[in-house]
Bifunctional enzyme IspD/IspF (Sphingoaurantiacus capsulatus), 382 residues
Amino acid sequence: MSRPRTLALIVAAGRGHRAGEGLPKQYRTIGGQAVLRRTVQAFLAHPQIDGVQVVIHPDDRELYDAAVEGLDFLPPVNGGASRQESVKLGLEALTADCVLIHDAARPFVAPAVIDRVLAALNNEDGVIPALPVSDSLRRGGSHIEAEVEREGLYRAQTPQGFRHAAILAAHRAVSLAATDDAAVLRAAGGRVAMVEGDEANMKLTTPADFARAETLLAAAMTSRTAMGYDVHRFGPGDHIWLCGLQIAHTHGLIGHSDADVGLHAITDALLGTIGDGDIGQHFPPSDPQWKGAASDRFLAHAAQLVRARGGRIDHVDLTIIAEAPKVGPHRDAMRQRIAAILGIGFGSVSVKATTTEGLGFTGRREGIAAQAVATVRLPAED
């Protein structure tokens, strides 16, 4: 018997700004990545999820595209005026046996939670993960008006799993201001089972939530440092490309691409942090498409590979070894350009220069060398 086709529907159409920074919370970053990206990746990585679709606000398409750049999954669906309408529009767009509906602002959903929901869904029309209430409860305003018995009370989480036909029929038949989809199914007469949730599967809403998320990520990350080195010789020309800048000079640098020795060294350093070969493997000089190519493309690619592993670039340090041209007048512009390509802060980029006191090929002004060191943080299990 074949496994039922199961898709994840990520609800990201909300416009809440309570988390600050002027962005909907699903597009804020934690650990250098958008919350939505982390959420989508959690489902893409699960072996029993056959596809992922996100419901977005139509005004957020640019934010969405930037958040999920490089990920391969179903195109987004525009949401509606309410959460229920957004979910309904997402469900209408899906073809599946089962669907897991998940809040975009819960990026820490664990594979085990997804496993428990899917296992229970074999015998149910609806399943939610939930945690028992452990705190004492009170009802009131400025003063306590009553105690509330906590026995039998649970905190609902997502993903909430459903038979696709059952939850779609419920959304078509029922209209109510529901906070989750289990309530919609129950209002339509369906039954919903509960499985164990996870304390880490929190919904990010307030600045305090985001601060806690950063702490959790920091504890789960490991630091890696790698080096890169590159050399290009001088040839005919009146300028060179160095750290993404065109600089007038008595000669040019010879290379298959634009021969930007600084960006090449940083690219190799970043690839080294994730153990993903070197620049020649990703952009072989034998391939004519890279002839004369701007090296910012190489560096941006390496940075994207780091981010795709859940990584965050903490710092890059570049040393240029040359008698000429002088780096000092261009240093800050170089730092700004590198920071812009990598999507990191100006203060996270260092550019230094030195000579070899007339010794060796750089001392003889035959070319330029560059050495780079990159430090990134990656998920500890990577």
Remarks:
- The two ends are 34 Å apart (CA to CA).
